[in-house]
């Protein structure tokens, strides 16, 4: 499902029209104002379909600011001028950033290294919070993942199948707020089948400020994998498109995680507090039902049969190909194959765990297991077989049915 909001198109048109405009002389300011008016006109055309879009609201505020800075009149021509392109040595290839724009150098020069935390969202959708809580959630529609003094991250989740309770991430918006002399405000937005290797304005770094390279985007695999380094806040973000849907992973210092002006609203975003109770799914219970009944689909008319139905046994076998350790990533893979029938969700779980291995600071906590089982020291694999309790439960159920039959 592609969003009807066309703010990305407006942004790219403005960027194309004004590339290199910060090198223009005062006599060419009217051309910049013309491009701004065209930009504003474009945002008005798509306003109705962009009401809940963070990038849209960011663009509208940015236009107003630029209008004031350049003394532009809101009335006038809107034909977009052809301005000259960026000259060699532009800020896109900015050299070393000042110390204030490097988190570890500026804030921890004479103290212990910062404590880094991790949050990830993938699949149908499964959430690993900054506190290593693992949840499976419904969260259909737009939800905030992160909201602090430095950046906002919002995801939009849509049904995998018509009428299905299974959802996955179809849109992601990240807003990096302007920070001192390091970076200008930048917006990154990805949608299904559109994983840009640049910010919404076409740039690949933090803008024209002296520390612009302390924020930059790197394309790892075209259309499938990008990485954003925000050195000024010690943060790394990984965004992937796996199949039709997006995954998100972040590594962030605790100091940045907890940097909020309003403590009362701090719990409103998913990466910190997790999903609301009424949005959480107990997929352990679902898994037990599937194993005992030997079927691959949820009961009830609310979830149509997936295009390729997996049995419990075939789903576990498929997930074991990529996820040999039967932890919560493995179990989420099984859950997703049973609810969607889409093997790309297996890859989503696999890459989510690969991102954990790269981003998590505590290598003893990479794997997570069911909270109902005792964990070995350091969150290592439990000594019992992951499915031992399940097998015992099924056996007891069978014995009770036989006993009732004898009666």
Topology:
Layout: H1 7-18, H2 29-45, H3 54-69, H4 103-107, E1 116-122, E2 126-128, E3 134-137, E4 141-147, E5 151-159, E6 167-176, E7 186-191, E8 215-221, E9 225-230, E10 235-242, E11 245-253, H5 254-257, H6 270-273, E12 280-281, H7 283-293, H8 312-320, H9 328-340, H10 344-359, H11 388-406
Helix pairs in contact: 1-2, 2-3, 7-9, 8-9, 9-10
How is this structure best described in words?
The chain is an alpha+beta fold and 407 residues long. Among the domains are: 65 residues; 175 residues, Protein Transport Mog1p, Chain A. It has 11 helices and 12 strands. The strands form 2 sheets. An 8-stranded antiparallel β-sheet has the order 8-9-10-11-1-2-3-12. A hairpin with a 2-residue loop joins strand 10 and strand 11.
CATH architecture of the domain at 100-274: 3-Layer(aba) Sandwich
Q: pLDDT below 50 for ≥5 consecutive residues: which ranges? A: 20-27, 80-95, 294-306, 371-404
The CATH topology of the domain at 100-274, please? Protein Transport Mog1p, Chain A
State the major sheet: 8 strands, antiparallel
Structural class: alpha+beta
Report the CATH C-level class of the domain at 100-274. Alpha Beta
Estimate percent helicity.
25-40%
Q: H/E element string? A: HHHHEEEEEEEEEEEHHEHHHHH
Subcellular location: Cell membrane
GO molecular function, one term: coreceptor activity
Membrane topology: Lipid-anchor; GPI-anchor
InterPro entries: RGM (IPR040287), RGM_C (IPR009496), RGM_N (IPR010536)
